[in-house]
Amino acid sequence: MPENNDTIVAVATPLGRGGIGVVRVSGKKSKAIYIALTGQVPIPRQAQYVSFKSSQQIIDKGIALYFEAPASYSGEEVIECHVHGSRVLLEMLVDEIVSLGARIANPGEFTERAFLNGKIDLVQAEAVADLIDCNSKKAARSALQSLDGVFSSKVKQLREEVFTARSLIEAALDFPDEEDVDIDIHPAIEKIEKCLTELTIILRNAEAGRILDHNPTVVIAGLPNAGKSCLINFLCGYDSAIVSAEAGTTRDIIREKVLLGDFAVTLIDTAGLRETNNAIEKEGVDRSYKALSVADIVLYVVDNSLNEKAGAEIPDKHISAGAKKIIVRNKIDLCKNNAFKNTDNEVFVSVKTGAGMGNLLEKISAVLDITDNDEDIIFARQRHIDALNSVKDNLKQVLIAEEKGLGLEVLAESMRLALSGFDEITGRTTTDDVLGKVFSQFCIGK
Ligand SMILES: Nc1nc2c(ncn2[C@@H]2O[C@H](COP(=O)(O)OP(=O)(O)O)[C@@H](O)[C@H]2O)c(=O)[nH]1
Ligand SMILES: [Mg+2]
Asked: Is 228 in the pocket of ligand 1 (CB under 6 A)?
């Protein structure tokens, strides 16, 4: 972990041309740097119009701001220099500040200091990065809620409950031999049951929000010749994959980034799933299964004209557990029966004529879109979901142990583990590895 004694500097705005560019400084030397750079004494939280000077000349004129510790973003003394948004000017200014005793900041170091100084917890620090990187309005709203501490306070509330339950169990542990003190642990067990219910809801909202955290992967799969490549071309709006009446044409995985509705997604066209002796096609089929194992949404295409009655045999065991599946019954232009009835997870289309494609797009959007209960969606990362699942498993262990009549020590140990799961999420206890990973994903200057 970097030493907190250093004063750090970085350009906070994107490099390139811009109306304004901002250089930010954080650390103990900030005030001295302000004075040396501007010749003025800073007034906390008051903008001053100043000349930023190097030893030889004026670099630029602009606005300087000074924040006293701890009332700043990082919790340390901070200055912000707003100058014209020229890359050259900003670099000159940074060089000057370095010569005055600061060093260039690492990615995310301002936010890391905010975390280390207790201004924000780890979930909020992650929300800062998510807010900067978000791909959709919905993601932005949700990240802002996390930054406001909505998710953290849910986690903290639950932690409190579990903590109280643990105290009850440990109190019972402390009086094992005193016969007349009969400590009833049922209130603790009831609390745990209630926590498990709440945890299930939080996990569901976190799973729903995970899709906001990354570009969802939409995998198009099915038997050869079903019309998969036609479908990816339709969704991209141009010919990306080769379409042919010859089965086994697509062998390589084809990936396209497209905007579906409000969302940027990665679309993947795969080789038709069939047994084959052709080594190249077989490799293609293996890659199809691999793609299915990481899919968020599977569009399983079937040639509906071949057998209008048969249900689609989706290769479930190859598909990732949380993936949403939509069966695309294609080639209805060739079907004799034309009383098509879409269901929740089935859409009848003809990629060739375009019939039903509007419905398919709506269905995909509905899966990607989680407008219904936006408020509850948690912009979760896999790290959070894993930790919440571990809390859940440990709480379940407590109930099992109690039912089996195992010793109170066993229950107490599972409670301890459950609590550590909460602490991992908010960063109360976190290894340097986790912190390093979180902050290295930030851009410089944040
Ligand atoms: N009549 C009809 N033919 C289609 C339709 N969709 C695809 N095809 C044809 O089916 C064949 C296989 O299509 P392709 O997209 O290569 O299938 P893939 O093997 O699943 O990728 C091609 O000859 C397409 O022109 C459709 O909706 N109606
Ligand atoms: Mg194909």
From this structure: yes
Q: Is the peptide bond before 315 cis (omega within 30 degrees of 0)?
A: no
CB of 425 sitting under 6 A from ligand 1: no
**Mutate which of 229, 230, 301, 338 to test ligand 1's pocket (most atoms within 8 Å of Cβ)?**
230
The whole-angstrom separation of Cα 206 and Cα 217 is 18
> Could you report the per-residue pLDDT of 308-331, keeping only the tens digit for each?
666 678 888 899 888 899 999 999
From 244, 208, 213, select the one nearest 228 (Cα to Cα).
244
pTM for the complete prediction? 0.66
217-373: CATH architecture: 3-Layer(aba) Sandwich (3.40)
The domain 8-121 is placed in CATH, from the list 1.10.10.10, 3.40.50.2300, 3.30.1360.120, 3.30.360.10, at 3.30.1360.120
pLDDT score at 241: 84
CA of 225 from ligand 1 middle (Å) equals: 6
Question: pLDDT grade, residue 178 (50/70/90)?
Answer: low
Nearest in space to 390 (alpha carbons), one of 413, 412, 419: 419
Q: Report yes or no: 270 and 288 within 8 Å, Cβ to Cβ.
A: yes
Ligand 1 center to 274 CA (angstroms)? 17
Indicate if ligand 1 lies below 6 Å from the C-beta of 225: yes
Architecture of domain 137-211+379-430: Up-down Bundle (1.20)
